[in-house]
Input
Amino acid sequence: MGLLSIILTVTYVVFFLGTLWYSARYNTHMLQLNGYKNKEHMKWLKTGMKRQHFVLMYLALMLVLSILSLIINLSSWVYVFWILILIIPFTGYVLLKRSNTKKKLVFTKRVRRLIVADFILNAIILGALYLAGSRYFLAFSPVLLTLQPFVLTFTNLLLKPVEKAVNNSFIKDAKRRLAASPSLTVIGVTGSYGKTSLKFYLQTLLSTKYNVLVTPESFNTPMGVVRTIREQLKSTHEIFICEMGARHVGDIKEICDIVHPQHGVITSVGPQHLETFFNIDNVRKTKFELADALPKGGKLFLNADSEEILKDERDFNKIYYGVNSTLGYHAENVVLTPLGTDFTVVSPDGEKQEFHTQLIGSINVLNIVGAISIAHSFGVDFATLKVAVRRIKPVPHRLELKEAGAVTIIDDAFNSNPVGSKAAVETLKLFDGTRILITPGMVELGEKENELHYKFGTYAASCCDYILLVNKYRTGSIRQGALDSDFPSDHLFEFDRFTEAYDFAVSINTDSHKYILLENDLPDNY
Output
């Protein structure tokens, strides 16, 4: 082999392995965001591959070129041919890695196992091609790169028994640790929205009297809960507040079978994850799996402002809370300002207490009242709670106020939903200045997406001075709802990327202070 052939061969191998690595990394990230569920990931591969849309085009091109390379003898220059072909996907995947994501790829042990197994499978396929002849190896190895999304999905399927065995061992260990803490009180928290905020507010309030453990961030899957127990549970903990998320019927029951909650909170039942739940009845049924798991005498705290929650008339030990309802613990005299919120809470026995929080928005008041109802039922008096409520900190990306020079950011970028988005723009309306909304819309609303987006557009029209939409393919109904509500078209703009919308918002020339609401920020799999 001449020097030129060696150089070309080495260059080809470098580009090939580099493209293979970046492809495996990106597609593993998407698989992780899709919960390692092949069914959902395959659906994403069919509909959500917009950022690697070149894959199908390249697959067809590669197949044609591979056959031509077998027919036409290009000698060593065939490497130049393939190197030029590989430059585009290599560059594309590098740019995808560098792009900002809402949730970065977490290199867990599972991810490492998946990537190693994927490379082993690729090596087996490449080895078979090489044994068939170097011409076949050179002709069809680039095709393998374009098939990586599907090769990785197949690898995930092959590893399913391994992952199940690993998860079962972790679950068994978590159950053993819980059994070793018989005096621990477990409070399950679920809901279509509001559960993470209420969880952290409740931690602040209960910590005035108890040693409290909570699932961190948005750890609300079975393995997220198991990880919390295995890594953080101590014998000194008295209360474990366990957030429980769900995308399918049976998901809450799966977590309950691990932690066996004594008490539960259902913050809401609404049109969230309808792509997997299909209808609101399934959402309600799944949330009430928590109620079904409670022991006799276990307290069930329910948001009385949620009409869907009130539809369940079964006999549980219910304690209600709300802002608009007067059932159970409820708020009255709510005064919302850009500097915080004042409100009075009335207990079921008529006791009243005035509260102040630095948080903004009626949705935060609802979640704080829920936390107050639980803490008060656990023996924390109103006088203590009054001080504790003042100490409640904003949960990141949930109506979080941030000063950024000449503008104020209202960061509500985490998992927007129909109720929360309406509350967010109504909160924006409270501010005296130029009010700017940036949103890519909401996701996983199934067949109701256009209807709910249209309604959001009508709400936004009455609360905002500017509406900046990210990704016109998802937000057309929001645009139409706003325009049908007489929102000025010259104050409504569409952008391809969030950063473009934000830079434009900052550049808007106005004499008043600018308030920018970031309503949702979709991760890469959307």
Q: What stands out?
A: The chain has a mean pLDDT of 87.
